[in-house]
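Figure 2 data, in text form.
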Amino acid sequence: MKFWDNIFLTNRFFICSGLISGLFAASFFIQILFPIVQAILLISIILLLVDFLLLFNNKEFIRANRRTPKILSLGEVNKIQLDIVNSSNQNLSLEIIDELPEQLQKRDFRIIIQSKSKKNETITYEIRPLQRGEYLFGALNIYLSSEIGLIQWRTQFTEPTAVPVYPSIIQMKQLELKAFDQVTNQKGIKKIRRLGHSYEFEQIKSYVRGDDYRSINWKASSRRGTLMVNAYQDERAQQIYCVVDKSRVMRMPFNGLSLMDYAINTSLVISNIVLQKDDRAGLLSFSDVMGTALKAERKANQLNKIMAALYREKERSGEANYELLYYASRKLIKGRSLLLLFTNFESKYALERVLPVLRKINTLHLLVVVFFDNSEIRKFSEKKAGDTEEIYMQTIAQNYLTEKTAMVQQLKQFGIQAILTRPEELAVNSINKYLELKARGLI
């Protein structure tokens, strides 16, 4: 039974069968057609047998393999490669059906190619995972058919493969290049001018045109007989914590990803840049209960620890407990640190309810509240209204957006740094804020 389970009849077979059946029906009224239809039926049976023998003799000469990355990036386009080897002596038509992970919810995936004799081919297709976790790829099914094309023979390759989906490593590498690019002006990351001298002393070097006159070291200049200047570098070993709100306000989806997933991707990006800047990166997560509490370190494996912790984070349905966050910032974080709090406030009342706690945290640390602009509402508010109802709805949308901007101003009045950003621009705006605060010597 397993042998026959791998044999399938094609659409061409059923079309031919339908035509022959119609001709047989017509031969009842036109007697001369009957011997002709019999001959056609005999030829069709012979072709079916020949097609079967061709596939049976060549099915062992087809090989296929799936190549997947060791880690998939959340929310990014990841490439999967299929290697097809046709070592038979004839051209074959291949219908490829890869059993994709259930999280992708793609049930109509198939690729049809014409495989030439003695040829190797590489096929690339793309997937975009929208959930963290383990993605299980099943068997790789290939349906062979010859040039006759009346039947198909199914062969299966590769064992089921589990590939984890981690926070976006692709985005992390792209923004790392932009953040440390000192030559080209790429779109996104801003170059911040340094203010003052709140930096660590690095070395004394010869004066070159353009150096700040205030940095001239007159004692060294008199000894060497030429102008020498003090060179400074950014202060190092500063503590930077990414604080991720896991409560229900972060479950809102944009472009397939929840706000929490955007925050998780950005936390990995920021942590990588912080470590590259010789600062110490840490991680906190909270909701109605305290989640991850990873101490800020600058060790070689710190980024892997952060990535593993972000991989395990799960959204919760409860309200965020900011008193718990204040307790954690006081007891678990030693020394003044920069806290990047990724959360969301959908109304001014929601902000005012937690504002006293945020002010307390800001007295202990430098707090940056990062919350989200609703890009869908903004798009709707910018559309041309077609009737009175749409005008009314757009007015409500504009009032909502104005209230969001007012929240930023309210936070700044109490000395709290704030970022209002669209979800897709979260990583870039967070990096710019970190570089700005570091350049201004506030951390």
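Caption note: The chain has twelve helices and 21 strands.
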